Amino acid sequence: MRSTRLISIGIMLCVISPSIALAQFSSGSTGADGPLNVTSNLTLDLPPTGIFNFTTITVASGSTLRFNRNPLNTPVYLLATGDVVIIGTIDVSGKVSTFGKGGEGGPGGFDGGSPANGQETSPGDGLGPGGGKGSVNNPGGGAYSSINCPSGGSGQAYGNTLIVPLIGGSGGGGTTRSDGLGGGGGGGGAILIASNTRISIGSSGKISSFGGDGIGSVGSGGAVRLVANQIDGSGQVVAMAGSCTAGFGRVRVDATNRFALFLNYGVSSIGGTPHTIGQFMHVFPTNTSRLDIIEAAGTAISEGTPIPVPVQLPVGSPTNQVVKIQARDFTGIVPITVAVTPDAGPSTRYDTQIDMAGGNVASTDVTVNIPVGTTSRIYAWTR
Fold this sequence. Notes:
Layout: E1 5-6, H1 18-21, E2 36-38, E3 42-45, E4 51-54, E5 57-59, E6 64-68, E7 76-80, E8 84-86, E9 89-91, E10 190-201, E11 206-208, E12 223-233, E13 236-238, E14 250-257, E15 275-278, E16 290-296, E17 299-300, E18 309-311, E19 320-328, E20 333-342, E21 348-355, E22 361-369, E23 376-382
Parallel strand pairs: 2-5, 3-6, 4-7, 5-8, 6-9, 7-10, 8-10, 9-11, 10-12, 11-13, 12-14, 14-15
Antiparallel strand pairs: 1-23, 16-17, 16-19, 18-23, 19-22, 20-21, 20-23
């Protein structure tokens, strides 16, 4: 299992005195966005950082809260100074494939692979560290914490139990259909909900990060993380794939006072969402290290540009091209993987490393193969 940076099961735990716990944790919310009261279906546009600063959050019964991805495709951060009460649904699931395209990943998740659009194209692989392989006959499902019903086309497992950094699920591989509907499903998104006081998920409440379905293969489940002084309730927190052809996501629950915690992590024929419980009371990692693509095929790219980076080579261009990867605020030797995923045909991955011995910012050049005549998406992560 690799740690990656990019860039009905009941559990009862003992009561810890709230007088000790309540002063120990702050979500970091400024409260600038005021209260959020969701009384009917609502879709919010994610701000550029993905961070909301609420005072309180209430999602009423029968209502669903969703989010539109921002240009950086960041995860969702719902921060509150007061109570978070979920009786309805918060949904960051991946989407179903559409005509000529793979399904869109949930916010912070990765898109499904493209379908083969006609006889002269091949199906594409799903995006993400665990993207499934495209195939005419047997496309692979996206992976995250696990690889379910593994086949030669399944993605690779990645991430860690703390879900730090916060990262979503990977897309399923595309397949061939004469009607252009053979894309893979998008990976489930990533969401962190944090409160200074309490998160309560009622019996009808649900937080969902399912992998999207696809005529190709299914995206993996995404990631849900909850952090508060007290977490209670008996609702569902689910990060699963739509079928056994793709992998599970992850759930992490961190609280100083885990009072009456009977959360339901979902049950199906393939089990429930992998989940861990602890007291890792940090919303954002203290390590600010980052990995950026700063040049691809001769084109300079600004630090902080959203990844994956799309590249389309002009006809007649050499397919061997250089991608420059920059590392900031790491130490020692940083092992990385660079992936090139074309819309049509299989992806390629290149394992290399960046040596930080020369200073805080270091880079390396990676020679990759980029097909001509199709758009390729290039991204990188630490291994």
